[in-house]
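User: Batch of two.

Assistant: Item 1 of 2:
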Amino acid sequence: MLETKNLTVRFGGHVAVNGVSCAFQPGTLTAIVGPNGAGKTTYFNLISGQIAATSGEVFLNGATLAGMSPSARTRAGLGRAFQLTNLFPNLSVLENVRLAVQATRSGPHWRGLNLWSIWSDHGALTRRAEEVIDAVSMTDKQHRPVAALSHGDQRKVEVALLMALEPEVFMFDEPTAGMSLDEAPVILNLIRKLKTDKRKTILLVEHKMDVVRELADRIIVLHNGALVADGEPATVIASPIVQEAYLGVSAASVQAQAEGGKA
């Protein structure tokens, strides 16, 4: 289980994330929504260790992650995909994914044994990388350098890297941002597939409410850095505070619509 307790970060006089306490259970997909500037990506950065908390802590399976670097948190079981791609642009798709597979596995490639055992191990890493690449429908482009790919294909490769790390917690920050209508379904289908593994915890920052409604088991809403709503999707989306803070509809309008429906 992933948990944050009173997680807070201040930048000068600005409180970007304000005392957020939340627990995320395996087997659930939680969508984190809110208006621009609400603190969603900053909250992700605190969890994954990209920025240090002013106060509060992050726990994974009861153990604190305080003081751990982003790479150490990855090894502990946190997997993070970013709004902007974070890849090795001059390496091929296959080389990028194979490096991610290699980072999670022990073997001759770590121990410097004889050339035959190293080559055999290299083959196993390559086969696993190819399986992941096939899952994101990139087999026909696996030998292309990442820099030569479209933005949508680069997003697919980043998801492939995340899958190759085999984390306990998947963190997706607007995974379909910048994708065409033809490209986005591949990523969404991968997330649907990941949801079937009840050992995994999935966090999703997403602005597209149709995606949120379909995929989320739970929604939490951040506004001005604070947690303002938490619950089942239908209940949270219909709440006045979410209509006002996220959808731009005033609480008075929501109340008037509700009263009109009763008349």
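Item 2 of 2:
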Amino acid sequence: MDVNCIRLISAGVATCFLILVGCAVPHVPSRVIYEDPTNFVRLEEDSEVLAEWPPSHHTHPFFIEPEKLRKILSGLMVQEHWIALKRWLRGESPLVPTFTDEELTLLSSHLAERFAEAKYNERVTFYLSEPQTSARRIITTGGLYIHGTELHMLLGNWRIIYGIPAYGMIYDRRYPMRPTAAKGFDLRFQPTEAVVPTKSSMLDEILANAKDELVIDLSKLESFKSSVSLRSRCSQHKMSCERP
């Protein structure tokens, strides 16, 4: 077999591989609203929302002041998974604030603006990173959406060290709601009485199809009771609501 034939075969194999990779990795329609060299906030379509089924529609656009959103984000806590022996020796792992003050300032402003622009079939996603080297960074990523009076929050990655591959696709920026490694934490919220318990079937747990979301009932937060009540009345009477 001559060199030209080998080159043709190699090119064909490479092309087939790229086609298979392209088919295996679906594109998520999105629009970037804010971006700097290390962070971004964007709106992306939610494939689980069906235009012909209104109950699946998110309550977007949703108007919320950055200060109120910052207070909610400040209540998000991360609890790391500890092995049984460590829990036996030290008890449960401590709750740690999910975001730093700098991250809260950035997110509360840009997320509030994005909620006001989001469509019924979109969710707001974010990506925060701290470059360590030219090929490694610490990332925190996730997404949110409002459904009725409930805020749904998914934290895909939390202070994960992500190594940029020498070749192939860079997943951490393309899919902010997906974990880049096995999750070693749970997302919590304070006050706990505002957390909506989520239920999953045993089959979903076995197949890992259970939704990894934290759901917060905004109507149970003191600062939101009046605005949620107003929004509910406007919806019932099909009135337009001004920003709370």
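The helical segments are 3-24, 66-74, 84-90, 101-117, 171-174, 202-207, 225-236.
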